[in-house]
């Protein structure tokens, strides 16, 4: 409908939903203030309402009658049930029992009555779906994130952001999860929700469906990850940035995995309080719960994914390659002699049966526990200095530390806790920059092992840093590119206090690069720089699927499939820029 709300003291107006059998009305739409001498359009999402309903338009006056509120041109769109069909044949179709409607099979067991008679929601496995009406079901809050998702019904506490109602019932009576962006939350704080574990799904028939709500001027990001090991975030399946208007949006993701896997839903806070994000009606189709259970938990079996042991980095490979027919552009698997594309080396996905293509590569997550360096090393500085002309002095070095055996007067500027374990005193090792009592300024590099030759467009390395003490120092991330040239993409200097601070850099698509932490200190020894929990997020290259792109996906010129929502968003999601072509 169109609405008009104009005048210095016009006041507010709201549209309410009244459903038969429910005493509490549901607010569907609000306007709070003078919106100018113009007609504006409002679109209200009703969803599936199984009972009779009507609307109530309420006006709130400020007592001074200098303003006019009006509505016009009201109409309903797509509100009829699907028509009956004489037949419904095909593997991707479902024939409703009583209404005889023919619907897409992806709409079966998705917590929405698409048939109109409920037959598409009969005989569904309750462990594969959750509408959050009775809690989190078999989903869990992650304990390694910054805060938790909140279960709520009705509107969120902050106006002009977040849902007004849930998706399941379409009323203020239903529950959903949301991410609160008001204080004490800060920009880039993360809340992660963990799914139960699932058995491998090699055929790609496992589908994850969910509904999300991203409304507000300062909404930041919602993303979904898939992982097969428990101490990493896994690889990115889908993400969405920014305000998507006041509506619930359905998303379907197809899951393929040769190992037991888990889904992670991560919400990230924006830079203000109008950034609430909602989540509702999560369901899986064609998936089975992981049966490698260790113990019984509630109404379902819960197993455990393996972990990546950081101490296993750099497993030695045979000195002599096995017999093979690989070309110079291919990588030879060390144990079997199989050939894989060179671009598959160090891409965070083991493609060789012996995983040799991922040995001596950078790890997706490194916490420096168990005395492990994860392959991080100190190269010869003269080889990495590139365009930097400062003198090279070897007066100190990066080394493992754990808060013990400190030199005199170090207690005030060394880390008091390890970031990974949060122990005091630190029990886990971290990689840190110890400054010995030398009088000359000096610098030192810490370089990562081999990285992918090509990354995902959303590649984003991050780490946790601590710098304390009175000395003048500088720490920067240097990315060594082709022709032995280096560029500085992030830097920080001076004391930052005794707490751990998160640092992240958006890389995007780069080739033939290296990650280096470069530290420089002044003349004082009263200061330390520490680094812990280095991760590479969303850096795995895109995969070319072995089946056609779905109707919700766009096929890039290089045959990759990306969500259609990523078209023309100024981001090279395809890696060949075909999703940003002016001809789309």
Automatic annotation (TrEMBL):
One of its GO terms (cellular component) is membrane. Disulfide bonds join 109-124, 346-361, 549-561, 556-574. Keywords: Disulfide bond, Repeat. PROSITE patterns: LDLRA_1 (PS01209), LDLRA_2 (PS50068), MAM_2 (PS50060). SMART domains: LDLa, MAM. Residues 1-81, 128-289, 364-541 form the MAM domain. PANTHER family: APICAL ENDOSOMAL GLYCOPROTEIN PRECURSOR, MAM AND LDL-RECEPTOR CLASS A DOMAIN-CONTAINING PROTEIN 1. This is MALR1 protein. It comes from Panurus biarmicus.
């Amino acid at each position: 409908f169109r609405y008009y709300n104009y005048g210095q003291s016009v006041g507010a107006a709201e549209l309410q939903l009244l459903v038969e059998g429910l005493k509490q009305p549901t607010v569907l739409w609000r306007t709070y203030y003078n919106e100018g001498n113009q007609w504006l359009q409002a679109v209200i999402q009703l969803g599936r309402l199984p009972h009779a309903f009507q609307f109530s338009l309420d006006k709130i006056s400020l007592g001074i009658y200098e303003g006019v509120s009006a509505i016009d041109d009201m109409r309903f769109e797509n509100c009829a049930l699907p028509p009956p069909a004489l037949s419904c044949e095909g593997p991707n179709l479902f024939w409703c029992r009583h209404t005889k409607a023919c619907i897409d099979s992806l709409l079966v067991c998705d917590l929405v009555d698409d048939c109109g008679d409920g037959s598409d929601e009969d005989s569904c496995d309750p462990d594969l779906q959750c509408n959050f009406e009775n809690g989190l079901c078999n989903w869990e809050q992650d304990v390694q994130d910054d805060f938790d998702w909140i279960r709520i019904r009705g509107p969120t506490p902050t106006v002009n952001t977040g849902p007004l109602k849930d998706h399941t019932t379409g009323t203020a009576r239903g529950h959903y999860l949301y991410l609160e962006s008001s204080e004490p939350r800060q920009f880039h704080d993360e809340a992660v929700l963990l799914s139960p574990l699932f058995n491998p799904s090699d055929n790609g028939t496992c589908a994850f469906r969910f509904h999300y709500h991203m409304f507000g001027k300062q909404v930041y990001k919602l993303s979904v990850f898939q992982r097969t090991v428990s101490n990493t975030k896994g690889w990115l399946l889908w993400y969405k940035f920014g305000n998507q208007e006041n509506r619930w949006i359905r998303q379907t993701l197809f899951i393929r995995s040769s190992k037991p896997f888990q889904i992670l839903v991560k919400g990230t806070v924006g830079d203000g309080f109008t950034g609430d994000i909602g989540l509702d009606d999560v369901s899986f189709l064609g998936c089975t719960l992981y049966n490698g259970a260790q113990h019984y938990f509630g109404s379902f079996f819960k197993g455990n994914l393996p972990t990546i042991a950081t101490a296993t980095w750099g497993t030695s490979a045979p000195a002599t390659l096995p017999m093979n027919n690989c070309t110079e552009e291919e990588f030879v698997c060390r144990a079997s002699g199989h050939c894989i594309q060179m671009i598959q080396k160090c891409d965070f996905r083991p493609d060789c049966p012996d995983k040799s293509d991922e040995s001596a590569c950078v790890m997706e997550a490194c916490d420096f526990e168990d005395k492990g360096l994860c392959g991080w090393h100190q190269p010869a500085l003269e080889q990495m200095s590139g365009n930097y002309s400062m003198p090279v002095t070897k007066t100190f070095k990066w080394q493992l530390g754990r808060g013990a055996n400190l030199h005199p007067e170090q207690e005030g500027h060394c880390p008091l806790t390890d970031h990974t374990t949060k122990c005091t005193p630190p029990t886990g090792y971290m990689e840190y920059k110890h400054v010995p009592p030398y009088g000359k300024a000096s610098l030192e590099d810490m370089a990562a092992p081999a990285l992918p030759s090509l990354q995902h467009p959303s590649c984003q390395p991050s780490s946790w840093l601590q710098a304390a003490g009175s000395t003048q120092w500088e720490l920067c991330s240097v990315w060594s590119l082709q022709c032995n040239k280096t560029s500085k993409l992030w830097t920080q200097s001076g004391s930052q206090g005794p707490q751990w601070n998160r640092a992240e850099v958006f890389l995007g698509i780069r080739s033939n690069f290296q990650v280096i932490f470069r530290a420089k200190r002044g003349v004082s020894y009263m200061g330390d720089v520490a680094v812990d929990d280095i991760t590479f997020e969303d850096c795995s290259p895109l995969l070319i699927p072995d089946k056609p792109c779905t109707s919700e996906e766009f096929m890039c010129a290089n045959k990759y499939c990306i969500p259609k929502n990523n078209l023309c968003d100024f981001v090279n999601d395809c890696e060949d820029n075909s999703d940003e072509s002016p001809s789309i």
